[in-house]
Amino acid sequence: MGKxxxxxxxxxxxxxxxxxxxxxxxVLTYVFYDIEKDKIRNRVGSICKDYGLExxxxxxxxxxxxxxxxxxxxxxxxxxxxxxxxxxxxQPVCERDFREYREFINVEEGEGEDGTGV
Length: 118
Prior knowledge:
Elements: E1 7-13, E2 26-35, H1 38-50, E3 54-57, E4 60-66, H2 67-81, E5 86-93, H3 95-98, E6 102-108
Antiparallel strand pairs: 1-6, 2-4, 2-5, 3-4
Helix pairs in contact: 1-2
């Protein structure tokens, strides 16, 4: 007989769904990437963490950044990607639109709450 796995469903909504703290002049910013080479992909993730962004998917981060920090991050990520096949998306989102944020997560027992196992 197959193993029965309990699933936990988490539903998060709005800005309060994430423990993010912003300062004046900063805007919520998503960073998503799809990069073939593991080494470069891992380096991009580390850079995002260095900028205080929170991982929300395997290759996705969110956090507050000023315009200057976004530009600086974009330059670093572009230079890191260099000639490697891949794509990086940096998308600022206004607070009003982010209030419509919805997150649905199904995880198997023992996995991380974010569903990534991270």
